[in-house]
Specification:
The chain is an alpha/beta fold and about 400 residues long. It is built from 16 helices and 8 strands. The protein folds into 2 domains: about 170 residues, Ferritin, CATH 1.20.1260; about 210 residues, Vaccinia Virus protein VP39 (Rossmann fold, 3-Layer(aba) Sandwich).
Length: about 400
């Protein structure tokens, strides 16, 4: 069976069709969504007749919206479905109207997948390829790539997607902060993060939660799960991420769905929004934090909201004070600290894999947290140290906010 490098190279070759209408750093705008689309098409193929029959039966009835999505997802046996009668083979049957049909096909997906393609802004790329007269060629070439689970298991598919993400990100690093953390650096950070927890993670029934509040395309989330899979297969690691770059968010969300990792819950573990002004995980607690905050990026755009939170809450995320407006990395560190698991709280460990001040934050028992920072106005204050209690046995069982079975 061909390995993931073979399929990644095969898909990479299709990108040559984009030369001219697209510059190389723009290839990912087409290639990543098309890879996701082809994989979903292959995964759903066996259950397509059953989904179409169920959709026809329920059409016009009382079941609609989220309830309809749930019912059709069950018919598909996945966390998503497509109720369009089209598929990649049928798309090839009408070259003159392929743009219209491709848009219709995407709209036939469940809401979670449609949202991903909206963040990819893929309809714009469909129109751009149509105008350049390359859309049919691209769809046809992808149709020839067999990404059925029988040919490409979920783990291999994850490696293929990670390989493509790495290649395209290396082409697209154009501005400060829009960097791609090398896989080797991520592996080092993950090893540092888990190095003292081998005994805990080897305990049957252990469940832990990890957050990356600047997850980008999800590389750190993927590598953390790879570590658990390789070293502690009986443990469960629920990974969560947030990013405010639309395409990066869409890529990370796609990765979670494509891998079909059952302990990712309902598939909304990666969420869109600015972690500083629109914290999607407010009130949640986590056992681990792993992130590479954007370097060389200030927080001027968010300054008003952050200053207001600082003024109102001395015990909030920024209660210790605010860093200089050009120090977004320290602000991320402050953002993470209050979300440490209350039964497993410890100071941060920082691994500097690059000038971006990458952060590996491990929350462990029997310690206290004290953060001091200088505010934008020059004043400073220190949060009160809050000692943690020893982690009770319940912390190695499934957290209440996490589903206990794969779905």
């Amino acid at each position: 069976m061909p390995d993931h490098n073979y399929f990644a190279s095969l898909i990479w070759q299709i990108a040559d069709l984009l030369r001219g209408p697209y510059r190389p750093p723009q290839y990912e705008r087409v290639m990543l969504p098309m890879t996701v689309l082809r994989r979903f098409d292959c995964v759903l193929a066996p259950s397509k007749p059953r989904v179409l029959a169920e959709h026809a039966r329920l059409s016009g009835g009382r079941v609609e919206g989220e309830a309809l999505d749930t019912t059709l997802n069950q018919a598909a046996g996945q966390r998503f479905h497509n109720h369009s009668p089209l598929d990649f083979e049928k798309l090839k049957g009408d070259p003159d109207n392929i743009a219209q049909h491709l848009v219709s096909y995407i709209k036939g997906f469940s809401t979670n997948v449609r949202d991903i393609f909206e963040f990819f802004e893929f309809e714009n790329e469909i129109e751009r390829m149509r105008e350049a007269n390359i859309l049919y060629l691209v769809v046809s070439k992808f149709c020839d790539v067999d990404l059925h689970p029988s040919a490409v298991p979920n783990e291999q598919m994850g490696l293929i997607f990670e390989n493509l993400i790495r290649r395209f990100n290396e082409l697209a690093n154009e501005t400060a902060g829009d960097h791609f953390t090398p896989r080797e650096a991520i592996r080092l950070m993950v090893n540092i993060l888990f190095i003292h927890d081998d005994k805990l993670l080897a305990t049957p029934g252990t469940v832990r939660k990890l957050l990356d509040p600047a997850c980008g395309t999800g590389g750190m989330l993927a590598e953390a799960q790879n570590y658990l899979r390789e070293h502690h297969g009986a443990a469960r690691l629920y990974v969560y991420g947030q990013d405010y770059n639309k395409r990066a968010f869409a890529t990370a969300a796609s990765d979670m769905l494509m891998k079909q990792v059952d302990h990712n819950g309902a598939g909304n573990n990666v969420r869109y929004g600015d972690s500083f002004t629109d914290d999607q995980f407010a009130g949640e607690t986590f056992d681990y934090f792993l992130t590479n905050p954007p370097f060389g990026v200030d927080w001027k755009k968010q300054q008003r909201e952050i200053q207001q939170e600082y003024d109102k809450r001395s015990d909030g995320r920024f209660g210790a004070g605010l860093p200089r407006v050009n120090d977004g990395s320290l602000l991320f560190l402050q953002h993470m600290s209050p979300s440490s698991s209350p039964c497993a709280r410890r100071s941060t460990n920082t691994a500097r894999a690059s000038p971006s001040s990458s952060v590996a934050h491990r929350s462990l028992p029997g310690a206290q947290v004290r953060v001091r920072a200088t505010s934008a106005s020059g004043s400073s204050r220190t949060t009160g140290s809050r000692p943690s209690s020893l982690c009770p046995s319940r912390c190695s069982t499934t957290p209440a906010s996490v589903p206990t079975s794969g779905s």
